């Protein structure tokens, strides 16, 4: 029975309906008889034919259903093959393209008609073609086993992309040699770029990790996973095996200097780093050599799936910085202590004239605490400075000048103050501010005034002593003139008036006149020793000693260095002092022998007088130290800046020592 073929799903459906109707009709025929008179054999044959026809029709129906299913499967295959998101190629044994899908043609940048028959190797970048040929040979040789290759592919327009090639050899019979190659191409350009970026990032990280000047370690499960060379140097380790795999606590003391447990301290910072993304702490470590080192540790956690956090830790040696910081803190505390314990008021200000220091002395002087002053503008603290020379002085200090002021408005209160304004220089030499030392000189001024009054009173006493001495000298000279020269001249007058007396009285008168002349000469010598002017101090002192009768006092004179030139004032003073010392010894000491030493050495005049007289008690009111003689010597020494020392005891004689500094 001829049945037209079905070319579409609609015609197949119509054929099935017709077949169904005919089958129903045939079914009724099978149940019908041929009538009487027809042999049974004919009836049986007809029924068998009818049943066979129904079976054939049912088989035909199954074949139609199989055809429909095959058409549907073919449609799905075409859809999956042609519109698949990856490229499918079929290559022959020499590598020519036999078949490819739409995605494959898009990957190679051309239409399928132009690609079929061309060698696939032409679309592989030249540098990867050798690898591709090996891939093809390996795939054909390994029948039934998939092979993969990553290669750079190029399109007709010259653009490239990275593809993952997966190949499988195909044979039509089990024993035949593979003749075709199924090839799947997946565009992995994005993945390849990410992979390369990750590799570059890893390489950079590894380079930074290895070449970092800071010590870097990786820690997981409280053990070191890796470390760089700087970490080995910091820990004094010779090889990474001495660090990697060891527990973290191996390089730390159990407790820190403040008593805190090291492991608990690190754990708390790690938990903080997990919450905040990073954590920092300063901790004391211990090298393999046993040496302690302070480090600043920066902890950065990296979460990993199914594992504990990976910790990236950077150690920076801050031992020197910590020591410097401690020293700076010590210096700061010392400076603050120095400021607070200074006897002067100290005020510091910066370039903007803001107060940066205000010590306790200023708090006491002003009654204003430092907390209310520091940070304020100096011109706000002392508004009376504005527009005055005081403000100008502050700016001059900031230009590097040093000043001293006695008239700042701050000191208009009771007492006397001095202000020293000093510029403050930074380590680079730039002026960073200024410093004002405010010194209370009230007591010093009072003492200076008292010293001035004492000096005036002393000068008055010296002047009075000089006047008294001069008056005594005048009195002595008057007595000498009256009792000596006057009497002699009067006797000579009487002899001359008595002319009748003869030659004897004339000679007596001449003798009296000669004696008057000698006495006058001695008095003149005492008043102004001309020999000192003419022959110098040494000869004058020797002549002075010669005039003293030995039966009155035996004087031993020791002179040294008097040939050196000196101002005349010192020679006159020395002569008068020695003269006064000898006069005192003759008048008061009742001595038999005296030793006078006058030495000029190293710009100093040393004068000493020693006698074997009765001596005296130095602190009695009637002692010779209070007399005119020593008082005159003291007055001369005060004027010359000399010193006098008296050593005397009753019955033991006296030693008087004088020292004068010679100023040219």
TrEMBL record:
<keyword id="KW-0902">Two-component regulatory system</keyword>
<keyword id="KW-0808">Transferase</keyword>
<dbReference type="Pfam" id="PF02518">
    <property type="entry name" value="HATPase_c"/>
</dbReference>
<dbReference type="Pfam" id="PF08448">
    <property type="entry name" value="PAS_4"/>
</dbReference>
<feature type="domain" description="PAS">
    <location>
        <begin position="73"/>
        <end position="143"/>
    </location>
</feature>
<dbReference type="InterPro" id="IPR005467">
    <property type="entry name" value="His_kinase_dom"/>
</dbReference>
<protein>
    <recommendedName>
        <fullName>histidine kinase</fullName>
        <ecNumber>2.7.13.3</ecNumber>
    </recommendedName>
</protein>
<dbReference type="Pfam" id="PF13426">
    <property type="entry name" value="PAS_9"/>
</dbReference>
<dbReference type="InterPro" id="IPR003594">
    <property type="entry name" value="HATPase_dom"/>
</dbReference>
<dbReference type="InterPro" id="IPR000700">
    <property type="entry name" value="PAS-assoc_C"/>
</dbReference>
<dbReference type="InterPro" id="IPR001610">
    <property type="entry name" value="PAC"/>
</dbReference>
<feature type="domain" description="PAC">
    <location>
        <begin position="147"/>
        <end position="200"/>
    </location>
</feature>
<dbReference type="InterPro" id="IPR013656">
    <property type="entry name" value="PAS_4"/>
</dbReference>
<feature type="domain" description="PAS">
    <location>
        <begin position="201"/>
        <end position="277"/>
    </location>
</feature>
<feature type="domain" description="Histidine kinase">
    <location>
        <begin position="476"/>
        <end position="664"/>
    </location>
</feature>
<feature type="domain" description="PAS">
    <location>
        <begin position="331"/>
        <end position="401"/>
    </location>
</feature>
<keyword id="KW-0418">Kinase</keyword>
<dbReference type="InterPro" id="IPR050482">
    <property type="entry name" value="Sensor_HK_TwoCompSys"/>
</dbReference>
<dbReference type="InterPro" id="IPR036890">
    <property type="entry name" value="HATPase_C_sf"/>
</dbReference>
<dbReference type="InterPro" id="IPR000014">
    <property type="entry name" value="PAS"/>
</dbReference>
<dbReference type="InterPro" id="IPR035965">
    <property type="entry name" value="PAS-like_dom_sf"/>
</dbReference>
């Amino acid at each position: 029975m001829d049945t037209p073929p079905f070319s579409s799903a609609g015609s197949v459906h119509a054929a099935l309906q017709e077949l169904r109707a005919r089958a129903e009709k045939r079914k009724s025929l099978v149940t019908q008889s041929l009538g009487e008179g027809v042999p049974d054999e004919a009836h049986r044959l007809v029924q068998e034919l009818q049943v066979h026809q129904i079976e054939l029709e049912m088989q035909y129906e199954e074949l139609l259903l199989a055809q429909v299913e095959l058409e549907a499967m073919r449609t799905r295959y075409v859809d999956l093959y042609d519109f698949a998101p990856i490229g499918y190629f079929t290559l022959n044994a020499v590598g020519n393209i036999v078949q490819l899908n739409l995605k494959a043609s898009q990957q190679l940048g051309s239409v399928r008609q132009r690609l079929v028959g061309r060698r696939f190797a032409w679309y592989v970048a030249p540098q990867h073609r050798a690898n591709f040929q090996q891939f093809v040979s390996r795939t054909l040789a390994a029948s039934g086993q998939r092979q993969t290759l990553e290669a750079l592919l190029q399109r007709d327009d010259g653009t490239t992309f990275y593809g993952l090639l997966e190949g499988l050899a195909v044979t039509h019979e089990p024993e035949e040699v593979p003749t075709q190659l199924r090839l799947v191409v997946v565009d992995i350009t994005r993945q390849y770029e990410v992979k390369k970026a990750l590799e570059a990032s890893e390489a950079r990280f590894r380079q930074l990790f290895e070449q970092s000047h800071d010590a870097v370690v990786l820690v997981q499960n409280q053990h070191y996973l890796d470390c760089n060379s700087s970490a080995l140097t910091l820990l004094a380790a010779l090889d990474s095996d001495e660090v990697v795999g060891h527990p973290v606590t191996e390089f730390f003391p159990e407790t820190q200097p403040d008593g805190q447990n090291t492991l608990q301290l690190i754990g708390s910072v790690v938990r903080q780093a997990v919450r905040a993304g990073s954590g920092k702490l300063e901790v004391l470590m211990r090298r393999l050599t046993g040496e302690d080192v302070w480090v600043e540790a920066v902890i950065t956690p990296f979460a990993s799936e199914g594992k504990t956090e990976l910790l990236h830790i950077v150690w920076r040696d801050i031992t020197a910085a910590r020591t410097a910081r401690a020293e700076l803190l010590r210096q700061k505390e010392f400076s603050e202590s120095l400021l607070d314990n200074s006897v002067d008021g100290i005020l510091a200000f910066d370039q903007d004239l803001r107060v940066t220091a205000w010590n306790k002395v200023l708090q006491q002087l002003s009654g204003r605490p430092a907390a209310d002053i520091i940070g304020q503008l100096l011109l706000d603290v002392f508004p009376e400075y504005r527009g005055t020379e005081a403000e100008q002085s502050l700016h001059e200090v900031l230009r590097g000048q040093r000043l001293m002021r006695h008239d700042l408005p701050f000191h208009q209160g009771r007492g006397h103050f001095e202000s020293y304004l000093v510029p403050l220089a930074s380590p680079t030499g730039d002026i960073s501010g200024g410093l004002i030392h405010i010194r209370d000189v009230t007591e010093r001024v009072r003492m200076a005034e008292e010293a001035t009054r004492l000096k005036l009173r002393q000068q008055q006493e010296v002047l009075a002593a000089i006047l008294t001495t001069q008056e005594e000298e005048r009195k002595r000279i008057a007595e000498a003139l009256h009792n000596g020269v006057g009497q002699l001249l009067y006797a000579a007058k009487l002899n001359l008036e008595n002319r009748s007396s003869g030659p004897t009285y004339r000679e007596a008168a001449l003798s009296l006149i000669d004696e008057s002349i000698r006495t006058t000469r001695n008095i003149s010598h005492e008043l102004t020793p001309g020999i000192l002017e003419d022959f110098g101090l040494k000869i004058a002192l020797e002549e002075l000693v010669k005039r003293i009768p030995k039966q009155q006092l035996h004087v031993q004179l020791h002179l040294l260095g008097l040939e050196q030139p000196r101002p005349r004032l010192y020679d006159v003073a020395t002569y008068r002092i020695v003269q006064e010392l000898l006069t005192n010894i003759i008048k008061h000491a009742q001595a038999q022998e005296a030793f006078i030493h006058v030495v000029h050495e190293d710009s100093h005049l040393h004068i000493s007088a020693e006698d074997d007289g009765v001596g005296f008690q130095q602190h009695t009111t009637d002692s010779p130290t209070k007399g005119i003689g020593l008082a005159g010597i003291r007055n001369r020494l005060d004027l010359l800046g000399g010193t006098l020392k008296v050593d005397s005891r009753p019955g033991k004689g006296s030693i008087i020592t004088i020292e004068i500094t010679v100023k040219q």
